[in-house]
Amino acid sequence: MPSNLLVQPPADGVRLITLHRPQALNALSTELLAELATELDAAERDEHTRAVIITGSRKAFAAGADVNEMAERDLVGILNDPRVSHWQRIAAFSKPLIAAVNGYALGGGCELVMCADIVIAGSDARFGQPEINLGIIPGAGGTQRLLRAVGKPLAMQMVLSGEAIDARHALQAGLVSEVTEPELTVERALQVARAIAAKAPLAVRLAKEALLKAQDTDLATGLRFERHAFTLLAGTADRNEGIRAFQEKRPARFLGQ
Ligand code: HXC
């Protein structure tokens, strides 16, 4: 049983994971990250889970890496940091991942948000990379993914000054997909997740992979991948079902085949 997470088993294909370390504003300790990676691995294996939501509390999605834990690590400890592989497992999750964010998403918290595919933010959310205040820099994608998400000037401003931005600014910059009233964040994420969970699983999986390709390949390679994925899906039963259901004016029943 995880001790830093609350995990709701999948309902309607959606699994909800709540970061729960209230005494430290959900700071991402090594233990919490290991638990999160393990839960995502379980969700990856579970055919009933079609989408996962990660959320935190009203005050904090996550206030970053655990600074007290960081204080105990020397150079060798950092070179052998087990958190690196936890982060890799989290970032490699292949099913749709939605972050429902209220309050602080700072440092590793903001980096966790950027591992998600869709980000629903409460209007009270704040996103920042304050590592520079500690004499360090982001270490879990906060320079690479942030620049790709919001562009160079704003990424530079956030990482070099440590200043956070609010939800409206994050929406305008492309860091989040939607802003809601704070009390509706998880509900809205659930709506989106349920909609995704009802689609053809193979198409969802390949759509995510194709969209992610756009971030790290040149256009010609990305277009080639899209064409291959599109062709592959032409051989699926779910494609036949989707088209037949449209013609028969009824909802499709996708089986993941
Ligand atoms: C450990 C933390 C913490 C953190 C908060 N707490 N953030 N503990 N690590 N990142 C603890 C506080 O020590 C405090 O514990 C309790 O949570 C409540 O926090 P307060 O500071 O009292 O709350 P508030 O005054 O409302 O301020 C909220 C805050 C501030 C602005 C978010 O807590 C803050 O600046 N936190 C640190 C943010 C940060 O620098 N994050 C980046 C970390 S570096 P007590 O016991 O005193 O009540 C990073 C690198 C990632 O993320 C690299 C990945 C490999």
Outline the structure in words.
It holds the Pfam family ECH_1. Its EC number is 4.2.1.17. This is 2,3-dehydroadipyl-CoA hydratase PaaF. It comes from Pseudomonas sichuanensis. Keywords: Lyase. The two termini are 33 Å apart. Helix 1 runs parallel beside helix 4 (83-91). The mean pLDDT is 96. The protein has helices spanning 30-45, 67-71, 75-79, 83-91, 108-115, 144-150, 152-161, 167-173, 185-197, 201-216, 219-233, 237-247; strands spanning 5-11, 14-19, 51-55, 60-62, 97-101, 104-106, 118-122, 126-128, 165-166, 178-180. It has two domains: 5-197, 2-enoyl-CoA Hydratase, Chain A, domain 1, CATH 3.90.226.10; 201-248, Lyase 2-enoyl-coa Hydratase, Chain  A, domain 2 (Orthogonal Bundle). It is 47% helix and 16% strand. By secondary structure, the protein is of the alpha/beta class. It contains twelve helices and ten strands. Strands 1-2-3-5-7-10 form a six-stranded mixed beta sheet, with helices on both faces. Strands 4-6-8-9 form a four-stranded mixed beta sheet. Helix 1 (30-45) links the parallel strand 2 (14-19) and strand 3. It binds hexanoyl-coenzyme A (HXC). Hexanoyl-coenzyme A (HXC) binds next to helix 2 and strand 6.
Task: Please indicate the count of domains.
Answer: 2
Class derived from helix and strand content: alpha/beta
Helicity level, as a percent range? 40-55%
Output the helix-strand order.
EEHEEHHHEEHEEHHEHEHHHH
The number of strands is: 10
- The mean pLDDT is 96
- CATH structural architecture of the largest domain: Alpha-Beta Complex
- Helix count equals 12
Write out the strand line-up for the largest beta sheet, numbering strands in chain order. Answer: 1-2-3-5-7-10
